[in-house]
Amino acid sequence: xxxxxxxxxxxxxxxxxxxxxxxxxxxLAQTSVDDAWVRATVPGQPSTGAFMKLTASTDSKLVGVAxxxxxxxxxxxxxxxGEVMHMGPxxxxxxxxxxxxxxxxxxxxxxxxxxxxxVKEGEHVPLTLxxxxxxxxxxxxxxxxxxxxxTTSGESHDMHDHxxx
Amino acid sequence: MTDLLTRRQVxxxxxxxxxxxxxxxxxxxxxxxxxxxxxxxxxxGRTFRLxxxxxxxxxxxxxxxxxxMVFFGFTQCPAVCPTTLARAAQIKKLxxxxxxFLQVIFISLDPExxxxxxxxxxxxAFDPSFVALSGTLKETAATAKEFGxxxxxxxxxxxxxxxxxxxxxxxxxxxxxxxxxxHSLTAKECVEDLLTVMEVC
Lengths: 165, 201
What we know:
Number of strands of chain A: 10
Helix content of chain B: 25-40%
Number of domains of chain B: 1
Order of helices and strands of chain B: HEEEEHEHEHEEEEH
Number of helices of chain B: 5
Radius of gyration of chain B: 20 Å
Oligomer: heterodimer
CATH class of chain A: Mainly Beta
CATH class of chain B: Alpha Beta
CATH architecture of chain A: Sandwich
Distance between the termini of chain A: 25 Å
CATH topology of chain A: Immunoglobulin-like
């Protein structure tokens, strides 16, 4: 053991600081997930959305999500063109180093399609996020997202909310 | 003397009449809304006929005497639809003792997948007073056209999603279209404009 052993928190903080300095740390990319939640469904409703805040320590992208509660999981983008809401799948969501990216009802979000059962408030839904760093190295992040009421209103979309560990 | 009285009565009567016209129920008058769009000069939504979960038919006049707020969506919509429904529920709460005057009506743009029972449960989860209506594909298309609502199926693998207009349409208690509320407005902003509609009729 080296005497420079530091606790996990300060190690992460150091990483974030290094990332901000523009140093590349390909093997040590970290992505934090905050405030993840899934919208509850009514019986028979075949799909729902998952929402969260992602902060990557180095330039990365979210390239996929998997879950055992749905047959098909896709990352979608909602775009308003005038008064018309357009939706569709995206290949990836960019996660610039140190920037908190919101997956919320007003923009990018995870679609859980072909639900195998009703998703009820108070339960938890396991999600596996696949994040790829600038070097193409992939990392799986396991998230256990709580299910919130169907009636939960959309959060504001502050894309520049710096929230480091 | 008698003559004078009569004239005075006539003038009083006239002013009451003109007050009545000013206070509203004049379908041609334009309204000044702070946030929403004045739609008083547009005629939309007069002939649709759709059904609720029990198969009962509804048209605009079914809601006469209330202030109907109509918007379109589908239950597999993760973003705008639940947000707009949640906003509608919040609007109702903010309206206090006038809340029962507002009648929220959600019209499905995806009748193939929005099975009436599920649609009704979905909409009523936000507020039990909300009404969910749907029709056949043809009736849905005709209703959307009548409201000037754009919608389009977007294929996605072996499934699809629906792009659609997100405006909420507000009618006065006589069934005259008054106000268009954008998806981006807050519940509080909507309430201010809804109170203007209520003052009119």
